[in-house]
Amino acid sequence: MTNKQGHKLHPAHDPHKAVKSGSFVTLHYVGKLADGTIFETTNKKPLRILVGEHAVIHGLEEGILGMKIGETKKIHLMPEDAYGNVKSDLIMVTSVSKITSDRSSLYVGRSLFTPAGDRGVVTEINGDNVTVDFNHPFASKDVVYTVKVTRLIDSPAEKVKAFLRMKYDLKNAVVNIEDSNNAAIVKIDKKLIDALTPEIKAEVEK
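The structure corresponding to this sequence follows.
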């Protein structure tokens, strides 16, 4: 594939390719609330995702399907496709003593975390009762994402390379695909493997 000037294009930058389920995609985006408040942005570092793995919210992942490299798109999402609607069963009332022995440390707006890591926010303190909301901060809110797709990978070998970069930060692996048994042969410099953490090294060497 070549551009108008006759220069050969890398497959990952082919402007005619479109995002589909199973594609590795690199993108930039800015997320805003309906009032224009920016709540999330990739800034200078793009985000790389595998479409269909739900690394981003459902509506955003669905919204980029069909986009082409270099394309910019505004994606308007209702709560059900973004961070959900407020659920009353995620709002709990408990006593101060069950949260802390230091009452002065509690205040409206303070974040609390369950042992499982779920985040809640204190929304009301009434006597000994404390109301904690475990809904997402943007629950029941419309959001708008402005997204630009900068790279798209869909060849098997390039997908494996992208996966290794994304999961293990391996940037110089050599990948060959064996069509006969649908297997990928990955060659990694021993110095790169030795530099990995013991846990990741053990998994790569399996």
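DSSP finds five helices and eleven strands in the chain.
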